[in-house]
Structure prediction request, 175 residues.
Amino acid sequence: MDQLAVPIAAAAERVMQCLMEDGKILCCGNGGSAADSQHFAAELLNRFEMERPGLAAFSLTSDPSTITSIANDFDYAQIFSKQVHALGRPRDMLLAISTSGNSRNVVEAVVAAHEQQMTVIALTGRGGGLISEILSPDDIHICVASNSTARTQEVHILALHCLCDAIDCLLLGVE
Prediction:
């Protein structure tokens, strides 16, 4: 808790800044992290615990036709980066989730986000892997200090819920 409180708070502030400037949050990950990216986007787009207007967020993992066409025509490593290049703008953010920090397609999405002048929030484990090495000083790294994929994923979903709660509190105020 003590280790992740500061980056989670910073991420919430940055997400709010992005949304207030008419930016959007693009989310990506593989497997359980893909589910987490979809879950986070849904919590922002619809609601978390309080009623509020929808916030611009979507998961790059949600369109099988797009993912399979990119994987078939190019390479699976480009399934997120091609979408980031097409959809991402400098005012937008990428939420990149990889328990190892080494998922090639997530790494490529981070590179693409930087090329689009987007800020990145990275959720990783195991020391952060390659993603931790390519993050810029403006990016935010939420790294779970665990080598267990299951423990990392459990903390990731808690961190995402903390982000949603903080975003709601920043947007609507705290009662």
